[in-house]
Specification:
The protein is mainly alpha-helical and 112 residues long. It contains five helices and two strands. A two-stranded antiparallel ribbon has the order 1-2. The N and C termini lie far apart (48 Å).
Amino acid sequence: MADVPLKQHDPELWSLIEKEKARQYGGIELIASENFAYGFVFECLGSALTNKYSEGYPGKRYYGGNEYIDQIESLCQKRALDVYGLDPKQWAVNVQPYSGSPANMEVYTGLL
């Protein structure tokens, strides 16, 4: 059943999602946590990554089986430091906002 596309499995739900997508495309979202994501972001969000609980930090998780999650998070941290030209020996980044409000605050703080 997992290989059946949503459009076939639940056409009603699929239709509502498509309507929401059209609504988002038709307007300008001014809330940082509600911007319209690129296709590659949807690809990540719809991946096996959503199946894994990964509380804690890379190399220090509370649950096992996070070796690839650790690598992904470390890659994200490295890229964030690279974007701002920061030395990882002097700086660190946390890429784990747990909800929209802290995510918005991180963006505001970064921009200010």
